[in-house]
Structure prediction request, 688 residues.
Amino acid sequence: MKHLSLTVATIGLMAVAALAAPAFAADFFSPLPGAVPAPGDNPVVETGKYKKDCPYTIGMSHFGVNANTWTIQVAHEAQAAADRESCITKFILLDANFDQKKQVADIEDLIAQKVDAIIVQPVTSTSADAAIEKAAAAGIPVVLHTGLVETDAFTTEIRAGGVYFGKVMGDWLVKTVGDNGKIWVLRGLAGHPEDTGRYNGLLESLKGTNVKIVAEDHGDWQYDKGKKVCETLYLNDPNVDGIWSSGADMTRACVDVFKQFGANIPPISGEGNNGYFGQWIKDGFQSISPEYSPAQGAAGVRLAVALLKGEAGISKHYDYNPPGLDLEKAKALYRDDLSANVWWPTDLPEEKLKELYGNK
Amino acid sequence: MPGSKAKPMKTRLSNLLTGNQSRQGLWFLPMLIAAAIAFFLSIRTTQFLAPENLFNLVAQAMPLVITAIGQMFVVVVGGLDLSVGSVISFTTAVLALGAPDYITIPAVFALAALVGMTNGFVVTRLNVHPIIATLAMQYILLGITRLMRPVSGGTVPDIVIRSVSGSIFGIPMPVLWGIIVILLAWKLLHGSRFGLHLFAIGGGIAAGTEDAARNFGVSDKRKIMLAYVACSCFAALAGVFLAGRIVSGDPNVGLLFELDAITAVAIGGTQLSGGVGSLHGTVIGALVLALLSNGMNLTNVSPFIQTAIKGSILLLVVGLQSRKKMGL
Prediction:
């Protein structure tokens, strides 16, 4: 009888929990799988003041469309999300080309065009502050993603990458090479805040360990520059226990260098690109790929529309810090019918994926 | 005789359009092109002529106008300065150090003058080609700036921020900057012996008679060195303006600015071989670039083809001027 009561109570609790779970899930607006409201001081946005009827004109200040395949995909993801949303009749995508002064000008031009909402991918943490404050003063909601700013004048943001990204790779590398390992560090673009953030994440991982950085250089996140750096490091001293690569196309380049010299590929960190996943699956070396989805471009559009529709449960700060992707997850995402240039996970519809990245 | 009057008029118009027999270079054609772009934008978009947009346009164009004016000083004497972008980044980094403004503001101009003197010394005394000398300076300054400020940030003096935003007596601050800078440059280039000497030295270099100016008592090496000093100081001024705009110091803010400045000077009709050019031409050249950028934003041109369109229009504008005339 006691057992029966306990069983009934347990089932009852599970049922309540099961019913409560969707209710909790509906409590907050989720712009992207894996993005959750940040803990701590995180107010819910008063969307009532932005609410307006369709149609909407949305402006986006992209930090640099043509920098690499990832930045191009962010633009495609945003455009595709805008195309899918019937309320958006005009989507203005402006390219700052990693130029701070151009981004300030772009945001000013969007304000002058009286757009309904502005999405900003900040070039640096400070350069867009004044322009964002101008937009806020003009009553235009501002959505931020793929970068941080110092001003608090934005409406909502998705915080991702940077220190967390570098630490996911750093923690894995420390665990893989052991406490006394010797590592190389391949950094991204000098002076870029994302490079500094990722590097600081690595330094956090190295604290309290004896892992030693024996060589460090900037490959600018590019295949050709990364390859040159890796070749130089290999010819200088090929004895290395692991490589912390800041991602993008540098990892693929460095793996190719070790293959070119017929050497074993040391543990190396990578980033979620179809070409890299293909190489990883084929060669089977040890790696990890932190998740930094270009679908943040689509998430920004969704957030902007939700603000204008006055939807409830939108937080000021979202954290998008999913665990890194391992080989099994990479296998699940990899598509051999698509080119090396696709980044995972994506929000692009199948027909768009094939149109933009189809191999045939 | 009507015919005798018509011919000089036709010749004058032809000279205006081709820049022939003019010490001011080919500035009229770029002005027509700038006017055509402005006319197109005013009928194509409702926002172009809005006061807010025109104010934005002036503020966006100002750093390039200032840098291009500075660049013109060295182009007139047959030189080039590739270090101006680094001077701009360096200036923003120094200003954002957080030191008192009465120290940082004079310091950036003193340091810029030192950079200009070094460039001028290497070019005139060590006979190093201006491209190599100033490229080396570009790298040196970039390295120092990145050491000082690896990423953007810092605290820019309040007076600098206030000097580029808001207005005085209804005149927007960037417009005021433009008026002051243009008046200063006009005085230096077209209203002083110094400017006259620069054109004389440049004309001599372009004609292959480097000694001509010296024969008339003009110390060309000292004047050329001063031209580089002026160029660096104008770049520092542009850096001050930009620091106020982006409210931070940034090691990369001036990257590739030198190319835009040289392009603006070339579009404005200044001969890169020296001796021929005008301040108004340079300002028009910078405005053409700013109009293109603003116009493509307003007309929602896809970022995937903006660069190609910009390149094509530049090719058109510069292509209308003969290579020989431009000194290329």
User: Anything to note?
Assistant: Chain A touches chain B at residues 62, 65-66, 75, 90, 92-95, 97-102, 104-106, 108-114, 124-127, 129-130, 150, 190-193, 196 (CB under 8 Å). Chain A has a mean pLDDT of 90. Chain A has two domains: 47-160+293-322, 163-288.
